[in-house]
Amino acid sequence: MKTIKFHKTECGVEVLLNVLNGKDVAQSYLDTNTYNTDYFEIVLFKQVTGHVILNQQKIDLDENSIVFISAFQKRRWKLNAENLDFTVLVFQENFLNDFFSDKLFTYRLLYFYQLAFPLSLKLTAGEIQKACEILTEIKTELIEARPDSVHIIRSLIYYLLQKFNRAYAQQYGLSLQRAENNYAYQFKMLVESNIHTMQRIENYAELMSVSRITINGAVKEQFNVTATQLLKQRLLFEIKNYLIHSGKTVAEIANELSFSEPNHLMRFFKTQTGLTTSAFLNDYQNGIFS
């Protein structure tokens, strides 16, 4: 599978961030093969018809919509080349976290590392237009850099990402309440990094030097699911990812994900989905996304 790498911009400001005009990168989005990138993308469509398979789900696209894609998420586009008008914001995660002096910044945005809700957002034509105007201003600061450009870019990016976060929360009925501590976000970050080897809450409690009860309380308050549910959700996603894209056997996947026996993986999968691994894969290959 192809991985597209981030290309550092030829701009006067030293940032791992760019704004891309759809006309310049259309070929990648018209490619119907599955691929991923080593950077995050926010794709703003003014005009589009088609869909994208992302996070193992089909997202139908139409005008004035946004798609949020985290680094290394596998996607397959099927877009109509006619009447296609879009803009893309791309950035590397570590850069953004450093840019805002917050290593958990991307985890605070509801639309990244999201498994429970679609990775898309519907806006009005006016809202999309305003967002694209802000992106144009950011692009101008990147190209025509001045001594204060980095500060202007920081403020514009922060404003835009938070506006998207508010709209996403409103569309899907999610909470924007500020957490009293970082335990929920830290837990989510650690799960992303350790899902292959750590599938018990106790493991994460030890890493974070807090109790299981503390983690559960923080996760429940912030994400409205228990820590166990979030962990199982992420593990299930990883199993599906292997089944769809790796070509590995169930026994090999079980070994990759530290299951002691393939039967344990199969039992976990059936409990979570109601399907066997072979039935799930057959459905997926026939365009049925569960």
UniProtKB/TrEMBL annotation:
Is Transcription regulation there in the keyword field?
yes
Keywords, comma-separated and alphabetical? DNA-binding, Transcription, Transcription regulation
Which residues are in coiled coils?
none
What Gene Ontology molecular function terms does this protein carry? DNA-binding transcription factor activity; sequence-specific DNA binding
Q: Please indicate which superkingdom the organism of origin belongs to.
A: Bacteria
**Family annotation (Pfam families):** HTH_18
Q: Fetch the SMART domains from UniProt.
A: HTH_ARAC (SM00342)
Domain HTH araC/xylS-type, first and last residues per copy? 185-283
Protein name, entry field = Helix-turn-helix domain-containing protein
The species this protein belongs to is Pedobacter petrophilus
Q: What is the lineage of its organism?
A: Bacteria, Pseudomonadati, Bacteroidota, Sphingobacteriia, Sphingobacteriales
